[in-house]
Design goal:
- This protein is α+β, with helices and mostly antiparallel strands and 573 residues long.
- The chain is 36% helix and 15% strand.
- Helix 10 (350-359) runs antiparallel to helix 11 and helix 17 (507-526) packs across helix 20 (556-572).
C-alpha cells in the first residue's frame, strides 16, 4: 500500500543517488518527494506524501477527529503533539529540526502500524524504508540473516519485536519515534495504550460505552472506505468482528462484495452466519473453496519481508482472497482482524479481578457471575480463579516455546515498550495491552497488502483508544464475550449473529493438511537450514514426525510454525 525509501545523512548526499539522474530510481518506481542536506525521501507515485509547514513530511494517510482526510499541511510539531488526540491514520511522520548546532531528523510511526517502517542506521547514516528490498536493489544493503533473531523467532514466533530477522535491520514499532541523526538507534514512545486506560478515563455507563464504540468503529470504517475508488472485498467470516465491519460498509454508499472461505472439513465453514449477515445487510456473498492442495509449507515470501510471519494457512487464505478480489475488480480488502483483542476478549478471570480492585465487592461478585455464565462453569470455580488472579502479579509473562528446539536456541525475549505497565495497573488491563502488542504482527502475515489496500479498521487509533476506556468487566457483561460491541451493533445485525457464542476455527483443516504433508514437512525440517545451524532438536523432531498424530493432539501446530520459519530462512539465504 505504501512504498518509500528515506536516505539519511551521508546516504542522502551519495553521488550515486543524485537528484539530477532520476533513472537511478525509475526502475524501482520511486520518485524524489523531499530533499534536504541530510535527507532524501523517495516514494512510489501512488504513495500519499504530504509536506508540512516546517520542513517535514507525512507518508501515508492522516484524518481529522471526524474522519475527514487532512488535506492542508499541518505543522510537523502539531502532528507530533496531536498524535494521541485529534489526528489519526496510517502514516510515518518525518520531522526535520535542529538541536543547537546539530541537525535532527525524527521519524514517528502511527500507533496502528499501517505503514511499514524498518531501518538500518549507523553513525547517523543509513536508510529508513517500508520495504528493505528497495535498499537491497539500490546497493545500500546486502541481505543477511541474523541467526540470533531467528532463535528469538523460534522461541517467540508471534511476538512483535524491534529486532528483525535481518542483520543490522530493525523495525520502528507502532507508536514509536526515532532520532535518525543521533548516531544511535535509541527510540522513544510517542503513543502508549496506558494513556487511555487509567481510572479517570474509564467509562462508568455501559450504554455510553456502547454508543461511543459504535461511533468510533463507524467513523474508522467510513474514513478508510472513502479512500478506495473501486469495489471493496469484505472478508466476512460470520463472526462478530467481521460482521461489525460489514455493518458499517453501507451498500448505498459503497460497493461491497462479501467473501467467505469454505474448507473441506468441518470447523471453519461459516456460510450459515455469513449468509445471514450478508442477506440482512443486502450485500452480495461469494464463497471461495480453501482446498487441501492450496496449502503449501514451501512458497515464495515477499521481498519486503524482514521476519518470518506468513504460515501455511495465512499464505493459502491470502492467495485465495487476493484472487477473489482481482476477479471482481476490488481495490481494497476489509478485515475484522484484531477484533478479539480490541473488543476485550479475555479468556481468563482477569475481568472479575479488575472489577474487585477498581469498583469493589459488589462489582466483583457480579463479574464473577458473568464469567461463570461465559465459561459455563460454577460460580465457585470462577471465584477461585479470580482469587488466584488477584494474588498474582499483574504483569503477564510470556513463556517461550522451546519444543523441538536445541538448547542453543534459547534466548531472552525482547521487551515491548507497551508492556511496561504503570504502578497499580489492573491484571486485565495488562493482559489487554499484551494482546494488543500481539496484533501488531497481523499485517505481516498478509502479503497481498503489497498489491492492494488491506484495511483493518478495528486497529485504527480512535477505535483502540475508545475500547481501551471500556473496563474489562464490561466486555463480559451478561456472560457474553465482547458484550459492549454486541450491544453497540445490536440494531445493525441479525439477532443470530449478535447472540452467537461459537467461533469458527481452522484446526481441522490445518490438522488434515499436516497429515497429508507430514513426510514432506519432516524432510523439509530435518534437511533444512535450522537443523544445519543446530537450532533444532532433530531427535525429538524425528520421533514426533515418524508417528501418526493422535486424535486431538495439536502439537502439529508447532511443526507448522517451524516450517514457516524454515521457509523464510531458505528464501532469504
Amino acid at each position: 500500500m505504501y512504498a518509500y525509501l528515506i536516505l539519511v545523512g551521508a546516504s542522502a548526499r551519495d553521488p550515486r543517488f543524485s537528484f539530477a539522474d532520476p533513472r537511478t530510481f525509475e526502475a524501482l518506481d520511486l520518485q524524489v518527494r523531499f530533499r534536504s542536506d541530510t535527507t532524501l525521501i523517495l516514494a512510489s507515485p501512488d504513495t500519499s506524501v504530504m509536506g508540512t509547514l516546517d520542513d517535514g513530511v507525512i507518508i501515508g494517510h492522516l484524518f481529522g477527529e471526524d474522519g475527514t482526510p487532512v488535506s492542508a499541511p499541518p505543522t510537523a510539531a502539531d502532528v507530533e503533539r496531536r498524535i494521541v488526540s485529534a489526528l489519526w491514520g496510517e502514516y510515518v511522520l518525518v520531522k526535520s529540526s535542529t538541536d543547537g548546532d546539530r541537525a535532527k531528523l525524527t521519524v514517528t510511526r502511527d500507533p496502528s502500524g499501517g505503514v511499514a517502517c524498518v531501518y538500518s542506521l549507523s553513525d547517523s547514516t543509513g536508510f529508513i524504508t517500508s520495504d528493505v528490498s528497495l535498499a537491497t536493489r539500490l546497493g545500500l544493503y546486502v541481505s543477511t540473516i541474523d541467526w540470533t533473531s531467528i532463535a528469538h523467532c523460534l522461541a517467540y514466533p508471534y511476538v512483535k519485536a524491534s529486532r528483525t530477522a535481518l542483520a543490522h535491520v530493525r523495525e520502528l514499532l507502532p507508536g514509536c519515534s526515532i532520532d535518525a541523526l543521533c548516531g544511535t538507534s535509541d527510540t522513544s514512545t510517542a503513543w502508549t495504550p496506558w494513556a487511555h486506560i487509567g481510572s479517570h478515563e474509564r467509562y462508568r455507563d455501559p450504554k455510553e460505552a456502547a454508543a461511543d464504540v459504535r461511533q468510533a468503529v463507524a467513523k474508522a470504517v467510513a474514513a478508510w472506505a472513502r479512500l478506495d475508488s473501486g469495489p471493496i472485498l469484505m472478508e466476512l467470516s460470520g463472526g462478530l468482528d467481521s460482521s461489525v465491519i460489514a455493518a458499517c460498509l453501507q451498500p448505498e454508499a459503497f460497493r461491497v462484495i462479501a467473501c467467505t472461505l469454505v474448507t473441506p472439513v468441518p470447523g471453519a465453514d461459516e456460510r450459515h452466519y455469513a449468509g445471514l449477515v450478508a442477506q440482512h445487510l443486502g450485500i452480495e456473498l461469494v464463497e471461495e473453496d480453501l482446498r487441501f492442495d492450496q496449502a503449501h509449507y514451501e512458497f515464495p515470501v515477499p521481498r519486503s519481508s524482514s521476519a518470518p510471519r506468513i504460515g501455511v494457512l495465512q499464505h493459502a487464505a491470502d492467495e485465495i482472497m487476493l484472487r477473489a478480489g482481482e476477479r471482481r475488480g476490488a481495490t481494497s480488502y476489509f478485515s475484522g482482524g484484531g477484533g478479539d483483542t480490541v473488543f476485550g476478549y479475555l479468556m481468563n478471570a482477569a475481568p472479575a479481578a479488575d472489577a474487585f480492585k477498581s469498583s469493589g465487592v459488589s462489582a466483583g461478585l457480579s463479574a464473577i457471575r458473568d464469567l461463570s455464565q461465559l465459561h459455563q462453569c460454577t460460580f465457585w470455580k470462577a471465584a477461585r480463579l479470580t482469587l488466584r488472579k488477584l494474588l498474582y502479579a499483574s504483569t503477564r509473562t510470556r513463556v517461550p516455546d522451546l519444543s523441538f528446539l536445541a538448547e542453543r536456541a534459547a534466548v531472552p525475549m525482547e521487551v515491548h515498550p507497551w508492556t511496561q505497565a504503570p504502578r497499580g495497573a489492573l491484571p486485565g488491563d495488562c493482559d489487554r495491552v499484551a494482546d494488543l502488542v500481539g496484533t501488531q504482527a497481523f499485517r505481516d502475515g498478509l502479503p497481498r497488502g503489497g498489491k492492494a489496500a488491506v484495511r483493518m479498521p478495528l486497529l485504527s487509533q480512535p477505535v483502540v483508544e475508545t475500547c481501551l476506556r471500556v473496563p474489562s468487566w464490561m466486555w463480559v457483561a451478561g456472560g457474553r464475550n465482547r458484550a459492549i460491541a454486541r450491544d453497540a451493533f445490536a440494531a445493525d445485525l441479525p439477532a443470530a449473529a449478535i447472540q452467537r457464542r461459537s467461533k469458527g476455527n481452522f484446526m481441522g483443516y490445518t490438522g488434515a493438511c499436516y497429515r497429508r504433508n507430514q513426510k514432506g514437512m519432516r524432510d523439509f525440517l530435518l534437511n533444512g537450514e535450522l537443523a544445519a545451524r543446530g537450532l533444532l532438536d532433530t531427535k525429538a523432531l524425528r520421533q514426533f514426525m515418524d508417528r501418526e498424530l493422535a486424535i486431538r493432539d495439536q502439537s502439529f501446530m508447532r511443526i507448522l510454525t517451524l516450517c514457516m520459519i524454515e521457509n523464510w530462512v531458505r528464501q532469504k539465504s
